[in-house]
Structures are given as C-alpha cells and as structure tokens.
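Quick entry, no commentary yet.
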Amino acid sequence: MKPRLVVLSLALALLASGAIAGTRTVTDPQAPRALPESDSVNVRWEDPSRFSELRYSGNRWEASRGDWVQQLATYLRDRAEKRLPEGQRLDVDIIDIRRAGSFEPWRGPNLQNTRIIREVYPPRMTLNMRLTDASGNVIAQGERKLSDPGFMMSDSSSLNTDPLRFEKRMIDRWLADELAAKPEA
C-alpha cells in the first residue's frame, strides 16, 4: 500500500510543479520569437501561426507540435557562425516556412498524424537577410526564397532520421551560396 502512496504523491507533485506539461507548440505565446542576441548572427521569426506550414497543413495541430522553428533558427545561426568571415554580421528574419512533406488526412485515421514525404511537398523558407562587414557597410541584403525541389533525390543517407534533415540541408546550401567568398572590389 505504501509504494502506491509514494507513486501517487510523486505524480501529484510533478503535476503541481508543471513538470508534466502538455506538448509544446510553435504557436505557444510563451515560445520565443528570436534567438538570444549574438555579435555575429541574429535570427528572428514571425508568428509561426502565419507560416505556410500551419496555414496549409492537412493537420494544423500536428504541424504545430514541437519547437521546430527554434531548432531551424538555431541550426541556421550555428552553421552561419562557422562560415561567416571575422567581423561580418548576419541578421536573418524568418518570414515563412513550409517543411518537407505534408499531412494527408484522406489516408484515414491511422495515418492522419503522419507526415508523408513525397516530391510534391518540397521544403521552402522565405527569409529577409542583411549581411554587413566590420564597419557596418551592407554587403548583401533582401528577401531570399529557399526551396529544394529535388530534396528526395539528394537524400544521401536513408539512415538519417532527423525530421528536419531536408530543411537543414536547404539551409546549408543557401549559406554556402550566400556566404561564399566574394571577390573584393
């Protein structure tokens, strides 16, 4: 009898402390809308409820689960910091995201929460960016529309189970192009 009481007491304590919380969503009003400020790379984003990923999803609830926006922002910042030449600064505002794959509710209740990856659902992102040198002079700026229509053809590893692998590879390609060494004028 005593072990039951201990388990029940622990469960109640966890509930009271908020340790057992509902699934976090990207639309949570308490969720951040920017990464902590950095000297070299800053990433902010709009309200994810306006992103194509949620607006055009076949399962808005499932599409909003998790913290995938923050994960992609962190990935973008970390990868950009490695590529950015000393003294340069990159500011990025994520305007829109459409993840690879989609939900197809017509497939029935057993698959309604499953993201279906097919060629017709490529990853896409829209960014506003500003790249400046150490003196604050603008090197590049403007809107960038990222897309990877051949994302399934370039998936080199079937062992990669990262649910954001297609978006991350798209970010890597954009950074390689955007931050490529430019000839000095």
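second:
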Amino acid sequence: MLVAGYVNRGEQLEQAAVREIKEETGMTASEIRFNRTEFFERSNTLMCNFTAFVEDDSELCTNEEIDSFAWFSPEEARVNIRPESLAKKFLEAYLDEA
C-alpha cells in the first residue's frame, strides 16, 4: 500500500510517515526505514520515501484519502504498479536493494 502526505512544521520526516499511515489506514507503524528521495517536477516537491512495517494489519481501516488498496507480494507489486511512476521508482529501488 502506498501512502503519501505532507510534513507539518516542526515535524520530523519519520514522524510524518507514522502519522500519515495512522491517519490514512488506521495502522500503527512499528518500524520506518528511509528508502530514498526524488524530486517530483509536476508539483515542485521533494518526495521522501520510506518503507513502513506495521504492528497489526488487521487494524486496517482506510479513510477517504484511500480510493482503493490491495496487498501484493514483491513480485506482484512489480507487475501491478503503474509504469513510469515515481512510486515504481521507489518500489524498484527498495526491492532491488533489499
């Protein structure tokens, strides 16, 4: 599942990732690992990517910001992620370095 959000003033990136996961999915992140950054030209934004591990995926309760979701194995994720997307760059970087 891919979750995105903004960092609030005074908030650390890792704190923002944990908060956004909780707000959008209801799940509690137990571990956050930095992946990489990439500048996103269309919105003039630096995207900071993390991999999050959750304590209990049965907590999943999405809010209105999530229009759909699915769980994938790493191999399935490679096939199903949108081609030419920034998300694909992040996913492949994570999987290829793991």
